[in-house]
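Researcher: Here's a chain I'd like modeled. Treat it as a single chain, no partners, no ligands.
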Amino acid sequence: MGRLMAIDFGRRRCGIAVTDSLRLVANPLETVETGRLADFVRAYIAAEGVDAVVVGRPRQMDGSDSECMRYLTPAINRLRKLIAPVPVIFFDERFTSVLAHKAMLDGGMKKMARRDKAVVDRISASIILNDYLSSRQAAEDAVPGN
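Model: Modeled as a single isolated chain. Structure tokens:
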């Protein structure tokens, strides 16, 4: 079983998180400039083996796609072609930045460190991936006989 990777996509930089090889927990990995995202993801997949890439899907409170989707969609479509046959899965990312800031506060991170947006992006990616893992587990638990 290979790892899962998550991307918190941004116009300037993207936060990256990955699971352990058993897919038990997601951890922040790196923040990369958006222009280098495809090369970074391809290299990581080649070195570590990734079964799927989960991309945070920005949504409005009513569930409709955020304006950010117009930047995200073309970039992710290019990434899909480059990493095929590894699937790219969109997953709701609402509130991840808020949760990332809360996690940093709860973890005792100093104020100056909390201002580092690259750290917020990495933590947001790990939240997206942990939420994705939790939703998959909940779906498996809901199936009779499991």
